[in-house]
Design brief:
Distance between the termini: 10 Å
Helix content: 55-70%
Strand order of the largest sheet: 1-2
Shape: globular
Structural class: mainly alpha
Order of helices and strands: HHHHHHEEHHHHHHHHH
Number of helices: 15
Number of strands: 2
Largest sheet: 2 strands, antiparallel
Length: about 300
Amino acid sequence: MIGLALPSPLPLPSLVQRHIDAAARELLQPKGGRPVDFTRPCGEAALVAPDSVSWRIFKNPVSLFIGGVAAVILELAEPSVRTGVWEHSSFRTDPARRLQRTGLAAMVTVYGARSAAEAMIAGVVRMHDKVSGETPAGQAYRANDVTLLTWVHATAGFGFAEAYSRYVRPLSRQERGRLYQEGASAARLYGALDAPTSDAALHALFESMRKRLEPSPILFEFLDIMRHAPAFPMPLRPMQRILVRAAVEMTPEWVRRRLGLTASYGLRPWETPLVREAGGLSDRIMPRSSPAVQSCLRLGLPADYLYRS
């Protein structure tokens, strides 16, 4: 068992628990797609083991949302990735559905049975094979370019690790390194062959990208979309806007300066403890229909396995 000491699941009123379970089930039933059953095939292992750092981190919806937004900020700073994402995805036209598909893909990659994860990733690779074009500056790009895939994978790893460490529970350098190593097999399947597997390698990659990152109005359009897209239930929408600011806040300072993300886009002083409270609370709420819990059951583990101290 890894060194993340966790409290027991937080007992909730039955009505609240039902609402949370319903929200988790909705993630698994994408419109126009096939529902995903994380309890099958019974006994089949995932790409990552259940005692991993990944399984602990990816169960937390607050840090996943924050980390995911931060990752996209970094991705959109790279002109080839930005053009590919903005011209070949539904972020602008149907952001809620895009968020659902992206979240579900992350859940399948971490928690899904190996056969399901490999099949899904192969489908993504085939889809990316069809994506190519030119940036506004005339630079040709391909979505399956190893350099671009490596940047996307690295920004996701950084986003999820930093969000969890900053707003839920601090991660040691060793735990961060283990998280990156755990993602190596999925990275290879996606085609991110040079994805960093240590904290030092991640920082070296970020340094090498300094001259490639640039500001763009698209970044600010993305942040506006994320503030207003129906990613959370209506009563939590004000918190959603705060979580977007939390994502900006945790982006490296030199990146924020380069992109023109001034202090007004980050957290207000009183919001930081609020985000940490939300992150800690969500780490103790156990939706029984969530991929994390359902995958534990698939492997014959107790439903609360990831919530035990």
